Amino acid sequence: AVVSTQSTGETVRDLLTKALKSLPKHKHVRTISHFAQLEYRLGDPAKGSTMFENVLTSYPGRLDLWSVYLDKTIALADNEQTRLLLDRVVGLKLPAKKMKFFFKRYVDFELSQGDKERAERVRELARNYIETSDL
Fold first, then answer.
1. pTM score
2. In this predicted structure, what is the pLDDT of residue 2?
């Protein structure tokens, strides 16, 4: 729920349902993303995570969604969940420029956590990606 009371949370979910019914399809993903961000900020981060997961299942190439989802997970200081997400995103088949962004983000995350060994492992993953991809 976006706020602490259950009835208000249900009202917010009803609002999302109504919004999706009245908005054109091309605005659905953005709207769901905004509601997921609200869940992270004001409600239940697990529900926000579920909303992002559902949208990413349908739109795995939406790098803007991956980036926001990562931002929200990093902000929660859930390092294991962040690593799982980063592992998933660097496993996607994306253009080299996009992959560079996510590999750099992964290395920076590991360095910010003070884990140089994991950062080196990510660098090795990046090197393997470069060697095996058709750049």
1. 0.85
2. 45
